Amino acid sequence: MEVRILGDLSPESAAGKEWETLVASNPSSGMMQSLHWSSFKRKQGLRALHLGLYQFEKLIGGALFYTAARNRGAGFLVAPEGPVLPWNNQPLSSEGLKLLVRAAEGSAAEYDVMAVRIEPRLPPPVPDSMRGFGRAPVNLIPRETLYLDLTESEEDLLLSLKPKCRYNIRLAQRHGVKICQDTTVEAIKRFYPMLREASCRDNFPIEPLPHFAVLAETLCPPGLARFIFAEHEGDTLGALLLTSFGERGTYLYGGISNRKRNLMAGYAMQWAAIVTAKSLGCRTYDMFGFDQFGSPYNNYARFSRFKRQFGGTVMRIMGGHDYFFLDSLADVVIKAINEIPHTDKPSPKSSSERTVQPEKHLPSANANSSLISSYSS
User: Is 269 in contact with 168 (CB distance < 8 Å)?
Assistant: First the structure.
């Protein structure tokens, strides 16, 4: 096997199509390893390192790593939903992962990084091939989510919902709630105010408008993203962003209005997204974040009460894991030590000359630390 740097491939090129097919067919990967998502992250100012893993001239794996434009030596190369490997073949995936990490380490100086962070959609326990990796302090994608099986018929899917959920969907329909879809970039102007309203009401953070504008202009034209709206008599009551890649549809973002909450528009809108994902050929619908235990410390807890009404199976993945390049890490530590300000030691004074000096504090360990972006949202 060998690793090749693939560069900035076009999704329309032969090599690009080969990569997209590989990613789409791997259940442990997803859209965030696609070339379209890479284009989205590049437009946001991130750099990307694209590695391909070949065996007998055939592409069998690889990874799309993202990192900040400036890292000062302390950056991470992160691969959300990656690397793309034949994880069901332990010897092959183990050797492939070693080669990918070695290639990433070879690019550490160019990208000014000291480690890689990976997070394939693998259930625990961590495979033996990842010995040497440590648990990351943050995850790149939700560690627990809810999968709906879209291979069932629409009628069986409806029957698998909780009775109250089916009732609310029909209630919305009886009261004239309409569902419409928009695949144009202009839809962001209607979508974002709804998301912001929900964010203010339910106290959850959202990305700024430019984030969604770039996402829409990158993913909507190739048909990988669409906006779904619930409306009633001219009022927009809900908005949802559905993405689809390979055999998985994903409820990536969404929110409902404070107006006419009694019409249960959110249920009708979510059901429409599920049916749409099925019509697009998806075999799985991902709620993208779930908390089955209702923990007050889990960001997805308050949304999970709504999501569990649609049934599905809890999917838990092993989370983000880091591998540090020892030479690069040593350089970062030495650089940090050298940047600590030093003061000259004062000459001794007689007891009569001594005065009480204000206490001086060196910068704490957190003073120069920076949060590591997930590069996936």
Answer: no
Domain 2-141+318-328, CATH number (from 3.40.50.150, 3.40.50.720, 3.40.630.30, 1.10.260.40) = 3.40.630.30
Pick the CATH number of 145-316 from 3.10.20.340, 3.40.630.30, 3.90.1520.10, 3.40.50.1000: 3.40.630.30
Confidence band, pLDDT 50/70/90 cuts, at residue 336: low
* Residue corresponding to tokens 């997070």: 119
pLDDT in tens, 173-222: 999 999 999 999 999 999 999 999 999 998 888 999 999 999 999 999 99
**pLDDT tens, 309-318?**
999 999 999 9
The CA dihedral of 353, 354, 357, 360, to the nearest 10 degrees, is 120
Residue 126 structure tokens: 């961590």
Strands (E), the chain: 2-5, 47-55, 58-67, 75-80, 113-119, 134-135, 144-149, 178-182, 225-232, 235-245, 248-256, 284-286, 313-316, 321-324
Q: What is the pLDDT of residue 361?
A: 30
Q: Under 8 Å CB-to-CB from 356, ≥6 apart: which residues?
A: none
Give the predicted TM-score (pTM) of the model. 0.85
